[in-house]
Amino acid sequence: MQIKPFEHDPPRAYRVKDFCRQYGLGKSNVYKLIKEGKLASVVVGGRRLIPRDAAEALLVTPSQ
């Protein structure tokens, strides 16, 4: 028996281009947030990913 994830579940991590599309931000702005330490990311297999919890944390973090 093969277990399949629900099709409507959000991804556990976003590629930068998918994050930009989902959250309405430009790519350069996303990389700036990463560089400033305001948005966490990881590199896996040469691909930069933004974990879902980091994306959600960005929405609730007060801007300065």
Proportion of beta-strand residues: 15-25%
Largest sheet data? 3 strands, antiparallel
| Radius of gyration based on Cα positions | 13 Å
Order of helices and strands: EHHEEH
Number of beta strands: 3
Shape: globular
Output the strand order for the largest sheet: 1-3-2
Q: How far is the first residue's CA from the last residue's CA?
A: 50 Å
Which consecutive residue ranges, at least 5 long each, have pLDDT under 50? none
Report the structural category. alpha+beta
Percent in helix: 40-55%
Q: How many independent structural domains?
A: 1
Helical segment tally? 3
Q: What's the rounded overall pLDDT mean?
A: 88
If you had to describe this structure to a student in words, what would you say it looks like?
The N and C termini lie far apart (50 Å). A three-stranded antiparallel sheet has the order 1-3-2. By secondary structure, the chain is α+β, with helices and mostly antiparallel strands. The mean pLDDT is 88. 41% of the residues lie in helices and 17% in strands.
